[in-house]
Structure formats: structure tokens, C-alpha cells
Amino acid sequence: MGVCSVFYGLEKEDHCRDFEMSFLLLLTVVQYVLHTTAGGDMKVLLVSMDGFRNDYLTKTKTPSFDKLIASGVTMAYMNNSFVTNTFPCHYTMATGLYPETHGILANTMYDPEFNRTFTMANTESRWWEGGEPIWITAVKHGLQSGVYFWPGSEAAIHDRKATQWRKYNQTVPFKERVDTVVSWLSEGKFDLGVMYFHEPDSSGHRLGPNDPNLLPVIEEMDKILEYLMLTIENSGLKDKVNLIVTSDHGMTDIDLAHRVVDISRYANSSVLKSVVDQGSSSHMRPQEGKDRELVAALSGVEHLHVFLKEDIPERFHLKNNRRVMPVFAYADEGWMITTNATTSAQRANTSKGSHGYDNELINMKPIFIASGPAFKVNATVDPIRSVDIYPLICHLLNMTGAPNNGSLYRGKTLLNSSFSEVHSSQGSTSQSVWMEASYTLVFILASLNIYIYMNPNSVIIS
Ligand SMILES: [Zn+2]
């Protein structure tokens, strides 16, 4: 039984068939319009180029970045989280949570409950389950996500992983990563792609951010971006993929021969039990009951900022977690905390750059560029925060995100007006809202069509 026979019976067969055809056509058009405007066809590709400082693009010719910026939206830098190190910053981007909440608050850390030390090779679920990464949110919504390297992507988060993921292997050529992720998005019909490159961070550490030999590395990443954009275009995905290219942190010059703070000179084993990590910052375990004595011993040391856990400044969002040790310190930009100045000095010629410092320092802030059907064109907006990426991607993929510290209000400044307005529902979007709107619109248009059919003289088309 057709739609028409429900309304009219079968005596007006020819008219009825015409009406049914026009009704179905109308339905198709309405569904198409709603599907495209609601982002049903949208895909998101999140790319991180590790340690890509915000000013690197001004240091040499980067035509592909220039092209991406002209076709999309950028900002002077992105405000990232503290400490400005790879694992905490990447997991903040993926979850929209500050490190004290997601729990990956350093590259190396100690958990007193587990009585275990975390290193970057750790993929045990229990370390990662303080947050829900975006690739898990996607699969929970019935979407498909593929991650080609990202901190946390190898761990099962509450028994879930991305639809596709890869075990970290730095030797996989960058182009191979691009080919795989774009094939997921095209042939595999994936909705979300996430990928990671370890440059220009590796070279930045070795050379320092201001060495002329870093320029070819930046140019190489520009060529990888060119290859990525071309592969997306050749796969027919250019009008569907919202591409975000960003990074975790910046880089600054260090001098391991002359600019180190050797804490062993100020605090001995009577107050200091162990140092969990060292470098631009340090989590320290005092001897039992010696927290304040350890802080007192290190207070006033030049180029060092030392705190009892509870006194760590609120702006760092780095205190409310058991993995924050009773005493925490961070160094002035370019200075390194060590327990052995002699061994540090031996690495002075091979390690000339670092990061991890105060996230308010301009040199710690990374790039951010986004381009695609949802984003503004040739626009520069105020900096967003790295916690805003998670709710932004949830918005673009029509997903209800897990609780997070980000702001969709800030994220929406990146979007063109049509996409931003269509999705303007209380800070998070849900498929059901759009299904409801879709049915209402279909009902109104169908009623109008029936009215016109029954009253042909009511509409005069000149
Ligand atoms: Zn990094």
C-alpha cells in the first residue's frame, strides 16, 4: 500500500501515482539536505606533528601549510596543557581533559596505589581509563575510527579500542601512514582518522629549535602535508574531510653543560626518597613525613619552582591526582632539572632542545590549522585550548561527548556560520534531536504538498 492510498483510497490512481512520486522525491530531497547539513557525511582527520612550535612556519618556505591555512582557519598558537610533554598533551587533545583528570600527567610517573612506574611503553588499561579518547567515543556511537599512532591508542579503554589501530613503530614511513589512514576514510568508510608523526620533535630535541639544520625537517613535514592533502583529494574526500593539523607542544633551546639545576646538591637522601622523573619538571617522593623539609631544601634554588602538591598553582590543572607526587618542581625555560650534572653534561652535544615548561610560555605553544567543509576559509581566530579539540570533534561527528574540560563555544569560532548554526544545540549534539527535526520537517512539507494537491487553485505560479 502506497502513501497515497492511505490518504485517498485507490480511485484517483494516476493522480495518486504522481503524488506518490512527488512525495518520495520530496522526502529524498529533505533527507539529503538534513543529512548533509547535520554533518552525516562529515569525516574528521586529526593529525599531530609532534613538537611543531607555533612559529616554525615563519622560519622557512612551507607552501603546503600556506595552502592549508588559506583554505581554512588558523590561530597564532594553540593553548596547550601543562606539563608540555608528549603523553600528557596528546591525551588531553584526545579526551578534552586536563592531565590531573585523565591521569596521564607525565611521560614517566608513579602510581602509589598500583605501586608501579608508568613509562611511555605502557599500554595497560588501568593507567589510561581516567579519560575517554575521541576514538572510543566514536565507536560507542556506532562510528568507525582508525588511529595510526597516538598515546593511549594501544590500550583498551573499558574494553574498547578504535576500529583500527597500530602498535607504535617509529620506522613506518610517513607516507605509508598517510596512505593507510586515507584508505580507512575512503574505502573503509571510517568517520574518524587520527594520526601522529614524531617530527619535528625528534630533530628539535637533537638540534634545538633555532639550528638551521632543523629547516629541512620543517620542509619535509610540509611535503608530508602536501602528500596528505593530495591523497585526500585523489580519494574524492576533499569535500567530506575536516582536517585538523596541530601538535602537542613547542620546543626551546637547552644547554645541558651550563644550564642545569642539580637537585642532589640541595637535597640528600635524608629528605629525598626518589625522583620519579626529571628534565623540565620533576615529581619527587620525599622520605616519610619530610615533604615540607624537601620543599624547604629546594626553595630559593635559582631557576627552580618547587611546590607541595597541594600548593601547585590552579592554572596548571595538575594536583588532583594520586600520581602527582607530594613534591613537584619545574624549571625556568631552557633549564633542566637533574640529579647528576656530570652525566647531563655528557649529552650536551646531542640534546639541544626540550619542552615541558610552563604552558604560558610562547615557545611551548604549538600550531593549529583546520580546513574542510565545516571550517571557516582564510580566517584567523583567537587561540583555542587543546581541551577544546575533543568537544569540537564530537560536534563535527554529531556525537554526545563524555564529560570534558573543553569549550564548544571556543571551538565554534572555527566553524563557518552555516555549520555552526545548524549544530547549535546546548553545547553538545545528539542524533535524536536531528531525527526529530527531520520527521517534523517532512511532516510539514508533506502536509503542504497534500494541501496543494487538493486545492490546485490555491497556488498561482507566475
Ligand atoms: Zn611531543
UniProtKB/TrEMBL annotation:
SUPFAM superfamilies found in the cross-reference section: Alkaline phosphatase-like
Any one GO MF annotation of this record: hydrolase activity
InterPro entries registered for this protein in UniProt: Alkaline_phosphatase_core_sf, Phosphodiest/P_Trfase
Annotated protein name in UniProt: Ectonucleotide pyrophosphatase/phosphodiesterase family member 5
Native organism: Lymnaea stagnalis
